[in-house]
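Q: Give me the 3D complex with TNX.
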Amino acid sequence: MHPTPATSPQQPEHRPAPATSGTTGTVPGTDGDANTPTNSAPTPVPPAAGELARLAAHEAGTRLAPAPVRLGDVVPAPEQIRPAPRADFTLTADTRVWVSPDPAARAVAERLADLLRPATGYRLPIAEAPHAGPTDGIALVLAEQPELGPEGYRLDVTPTGVRISAATATGLHHGTQTLRQLLPATIESSTPVRATWTLPGGSILDRPRFPYRGAMLDVARHFFGVDDVLRVIDHLARYKLNHLHLHLTDDQGWRIAVESRPRLTAVGASTAVGGAPGGWYTPADYQRIIAYAAERHLTVVPEIDLPGHTNAALTAHPELAPAGPTPVPYTGTEVGFSYLDPTNPQTYEFVADVLGEVAARTPGPFLHIGGDEAFKVKGAVYTGFVERAQRIVAKLGKTVVGWHQLAPAAHIEGRVLQWWGTDGIDPTTADAVRRGARLILSPGNRAYLDMKYTSDTPIGHDWAGLIDVRRAYDWDPATQVTGVPAESVLGVEAPLWTESVTSLAEIEFMLLPRLPAIAELGWSPRATHDWAAFRTRLAGQGPRWTAAGIAFHRSAEVPWPATPADPPTALVAASTPRPRAA
Ligand code: TNX
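A: Here is the predicted complex, encoded as C-alpha cells.
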C-alpha cells in the first residue's frame, strides 16, 4: 500500500474531537455506557467509591468462580444444541488435531491450531485422521452430509474429544469458530494463560439461514492499510460472515491500482476526508487481502462507485467530467456533486478498463458498481448508464451488485441490489425484485455501523437515527421490504462508512458489538431470535474481545460481565494491547 502525505489540513465540520489515543489502541468513549457522559476530556473522572466497590466485588466473584461456558453460549446462535452435561472434554498438552486428508481441510486445522496455541501454550500437532476416524483429541472430518449444505457443520463434544464434521472445508471452518467460543474467554489471549481448557459436552448442528452475510468497509473516505483490513476480516470470520465488501472509490480518494489507468492512484489517491493521509492498494496488496479472506472462507466484493461519487477519478481523468470547472481534490463529506459524463463515449471505455482489471484480480463472483446518490444523473440517462455498466460486468463473467438506486434499470441475469433504505415501503425496489433481482439487506436505520450508538457516541453519523445493539438486532431481513419475499433475500450486510472513522480502534469500536448482531440475523434460524437471550450470549463476547485486545462499545443494553481481564475502562492506563493475528 502507498500512504501518501496529507494535502489539505482542514477538518470537515462534523468531525468530532480527534481521538486522543491514536497509537494506544483505545477509543475515546469505549466505556460508552449510555449513562456515562463520554467525551474526549484528557483526564477521565474516576468512578465513585460505591461503583468501585461494586466492580471489585464483581471481579473477585468472577476470579473465584469463572462462569463455565455452556454449549449454547455461541454467537451467532446455532440451529440445534443438545447439551450432554457429563460429556465435557478438556484439552491437554497432549491433545492432537486430526484432519481428513484434504488440503483445504488441513488449512482449517492449521488455522485452528494457530488460534489455540498462544493461550494454551500446547503444541497441538496436526496429523492425518486414520481411516476409521479418530476417537480422541480434536478431529476435523470431511464427510458427505447433504443436510448441512455448503456451509453447515456438526460439532460433537464427548469426554474423549471434540469432532467437527462437514461436507466442505468452509463448514469445518465455521465449526472451528464455534469451537473457539466454547473454550474459556482467555483462549483469545496472545500469551500463555493458566486455565482449564474445557469444552462443554454435547452436540451442535448448524448451518446458515442466508447464503450472503457481509460487512462493508469504506476505505475511500479514510484509507486503511492492509493490516487493518486483515484485522477486520478476522472479526468477520469470528461471526461466520462470508463476504467483505470494500468500498474502494469515492470523491475523497481512489484506493485501488488500475494498471491501464495509472493516474487514478498517482493523482486520485492522495487525499482523504479532513486532509488525512490517502493511500491505495497495489495489485499485491489487493491480492494479500483476497488471499487472507479466502483462507478464512470469505469472498471479497470490490466496489467501484459509478457514475457518482467519482470526484477522485475525475481529478485523474478530467476529460470524463461534465462541462464546467476542472475537478479539484475533495476532502469534505458532502455527497452527490460529482459524476462521470454519461454522454461521453470515453466514459464507457474507462468503465470497461477499470471493471475489467478489478474483475480479473477478483476471484469472487460479485462486482459492485455503486450507483448511489448520482443526484445529477437523472431518469433515462441514469438507467441508460447503469444498463451499460451492468452489461460490461456481465461480459466480464461477474454478477453485478449495486445499491438499490439501480432498481429502475433493466434486469440482467443474477443482478443483486443492496437495499440501504430506512422505510420498507419501496415499490421501485420491490418491482426490481419481481423482475428477478435478489436483495442484500443493509437498512440504514438498523445495519449502518457508522450510525452513533447513543447521542454521546464520539464518532459517527445520526442521519438514520441512533443504533444501539437492540436496534441493530431486532428486525427480520426476510420481511424488511414490503413485497419482497424471503426467497429473494440473498442476505444481510453491515456497512461501515468512514467519514468520521480514522483508525483501526475506531473501526472496532463501531463494529463491536453490532457486527455480531447483524451476523446473527444472517446466520441463525428465525426461531432463535430472542433479544433477552441474545444480549446474554453477546455479553459473553466482551471478555473475549478484551482478552484479544479489541476495543468495543460497552453498550448499556448488554449485561457485560466484569472479569479480571476486563477492568473498567476509566481505570485502564491507555495501553490496551494490540490484537494478534487470527
Ligand atoms: C450514504 S449509503 C451513502 C454514503 C455515505 C453514507 C453515510 C450509500 C450508498 N451512500 O456515501 O457515506 O450515507 O452514512
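A quick observation: The two ends are 21 Å apart (CA to CA).
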